[in-house]
Amino acid sequence: RERKPGRARRARGPVGRPDPSVPPSGVSCSGCGAELQCCDGVAPGFVPAEKYRSLSEGPAGAAGLRGAVCQRCWLLAHHGRALQLRLPPEQHRLVVSAALRRPPRHGRGPLLLYLLDVLELPDPVLPQLPGLLGPDIPAAGLLVVGNKVDLLPADSRGHLGRLRQRVVAACAQAGLRGAPLVDVRLVSAKTGFGLEGLISRLQRSWKCAGDVYLLGATNSGKSTLFNTLLRSDYCKSRAPDAVDRATVSPWPGTTLNLLKFPIINPTCDRIFRRQERLKEEATKTEDQLSSEEKKYLNHLKKQGYLVGEVGRTFQRQKSSPVVDFDPDMLSYSIDEDPRHSPTKHEEREEFTYNEVKDARWCFDTPGIVKENCVLNLLTEKEVKLVLPTHAIIPRTFILKPGMVLFLAALGRVDYLQGEKPAWFSVVASNLLPVRIATLSNADAIYEKHAGQELLKVPMGGEERMKEFPPLVPQDITLKGIGTTEAVADIKLSSAGWVAVTAHAEEKLLLRAYTPKGTTLVVREPPLLPYISTIRGARIAGTAAYRTKKPPSLVENLKTAGRR
């Protein structure tokens, strides 16, 4: 079958045979919420027919599938492989819209918790939110959460306040202001930073008044936040034993249907006990943590600049399970799910009717697909290189007119005209290479090295580049405001951005390139205006400065003992 030009084969086909004669199960995948089935290998919820039968033909019948995950979730979570699905992007919007249009439960509309990736500002989906909701959706409130702040270094004092103002401005620009907008928070769903504050805010203002829906663009971190809240004071204490975690991976659109957990009722007693726990934890220093806590804290510090711990006040007492070694568990191949033995089914906890009859739920919804995004053009391996998963270390270069900066083979910035050198600071995944060239040889370098190791992404040589769209230019004129403050960011779709710093009143003519069909944004004011100051000494004989990584900040710990 002929492929569309410029489209990479991002995913492999299913492994194992389907059986079209078997009807869908009626049981949801505990990773993505899709209905488990074995009749269509490229539809959501697919489980190979032989595995499906081993789980569903026991005494429990279809109930034996509860807790199982579809092949897509299994491959994503354990092998980072994306299974090719027949799922139109519009279907994500339809699922979200249909969920929001449900009649209000408990006499009150839901709270919408919109999660945006601060690296993607201006958020491409935020302006679509009013249209997605529509005038007939009785939402009781909107809380906007800026995620992934842990990936960005502090370029000056008060940088978090400035980031929050950028998110507030993006909300206003999207037409979201006034009564529906409850608050704007900054968090890291991955490292836990800001999440205890978010939970306290939800419990103080929303209490348990109605359901909560997590909304956002693909890859904004919704499933990671869902999983963290599931093991926090926001969730009923027994829920983690009865609710499986959402599949978390770097692949856009991971959550296919609605996953949910029951929200705990924040009574006065519970809020008091929670505050006491938080106060006690805030008196500790790092030196007072256990060896396991220190090890985990250091792990998070390597991943992000901002770190927080999400604890639990309300723990359910459980007896220690007896570990039964099963050698059959070791014999599964990559394409099978080792959680399930063909002869044994572990007993799963279930909620009782009384536990959930009046429950308010927190729903994780499918991500809204970002259009004109470079990630849509990339293969599995390429996506892993482009999406930052660890604290971003800025890379600064001083360029003269006539010089060119490449961000892999996904973006290019030419310095065409100017009187003086200017500073170009790259904020992107640490795995993406930055190459400096001149206008006279830049085209030749791209032709020779795009698809090769020097530029790294895309990868796959000439054959890969034949199907990859060409870079298209956009001219940009900027006026400098000083040698320590950037005037603008040139955002190269979702590949990253280049902050441009120039002498005061210095006029620059630049030409920036991104792949055809992707969005290039000039972001004014820049997200991190003082980013060029985070650098070491100039590397002799090159345009580059040595990189410098600021220290991490740990939330809710005393300063003494902090490194």
UniProtKB/TrEMBL annotation:
Residues 268-295 form a coiled coil. One of its GO terms (molecular function) is GTP binding. Residues 1-26 are annotated as: Disordered. Pfam families: MMR_HSR1, YqeH-like_C. Residues 1-12 have a biased composition (Basic residues). Residues 13-26 have a biased composition (Low complexity). It comes from the Eukaryota. Residues 212-262 form the G domain. InterPro entries: GTP-bd (IPR006073), Mito_transl_resp_regulator (IPR052807), NOA1/YqeH-like_C (IPR048422), P-loop_NTPase (IPR027417). Residues 424-524 form the NOA1/YqeH-like C-terminal domain. Keywords: Coiled coil. This is NOA1 protein.
